[in-house]
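Section 5.1 Outputs to date
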Amino acid sequence: MKTLFILVALLYFCAGGFGCDSGLRLNWDFPGSDIKILFSPDAEHCQFLCTQEAPCLFWAFIGPDCLVDSRHYQCFLKATSSGKPEKQNPKQGTTAGYSLKSCSPLPTPSLCKVYENVDFPGADYRTFFTVDYKACQKACTDDPFCQFFTFLNGKFSNTNVRYKCHLKYSWSVPRTPAVRALADRISGFSRKLQIIPSSQTVCQHTLFPNTDFPGYDIEVHQAGSPELCQVLCSAHPLCTYFSFVSNKFKCYLKNNPNQMVPKDASGITSGLPSRSCPLRNETNPFSPSHVTTYVGVDFPYSDIRFFPLNNVESCENACTSDPSCQFYSYITSSRVCYLKRVITMPAPPRVTNLADAVSGFTLRNCFL
């Protein structure tokens, strides 16, 4: 596993060595070397997905006007040991480019576009009727859970759902792709994220040790502690309560607004979302107060870079001062610090053509 860490870090440094290349190569492809395939509404969005995906160095996006490939709206994230594509060639309707990781300052995605005759299927958590797509987009912007939307206009084929606004959700808080117990690891999060609820008494009462709430699972994630599981439940609009299995680092998000039946279960902590609990306020991001670290816990994968440091406090400070870093793991035996990140920008689970539909993102991520 350590070999994988080293390879990812080498890829990152290789990419940085080529400098910032933000150009879009129209009607061009980088075939092969895929590490992940996601959906995007356009090439710019695909480029930012690559920038946020830790190992991604370059990408290719197949647009809706591509006549030689039917995989429309698919974003192919790619990497090689050299940091450069092994192959490249012309391809109608396809756009290719590089990650923006080596750009300084790191660009922030601006999601101002709306997409006519485009649907973002799935991820709905709330629907209602509005007069037009602008009112739907405003409702999305005003709702803290909403990341993107789809609106069916007055010409939509099914008259029963015309003017319907679909608010949709994707994760805006970082989720560790894996968690495991290792004696020489200490892990934690950038303090700039401020994702851990405060330790006020009212918030402590939202956790129930040695208690399970069986059934009604909607999603399962990896988490390093019951508090992190609570953060995930609080961030999901459909989560009404959760259960965390400590020996497997499994976080079960649940939805049942009607009842919550407890069951005695050793090693399981359940609880309620902490949406009413204030986050820990760090007036000084490098202050040692209120620091939450997870001793004996590793957050593997998602490395953006690594380097030697004398202690875990320095590793946490390095993560906090790096705008790309969301979380970290420190190896006490070798004194090596790994900085990490995952995709947190709004990302529809699918993108397809749909006549008389309008889709877009919350205006909270729009910078004109």
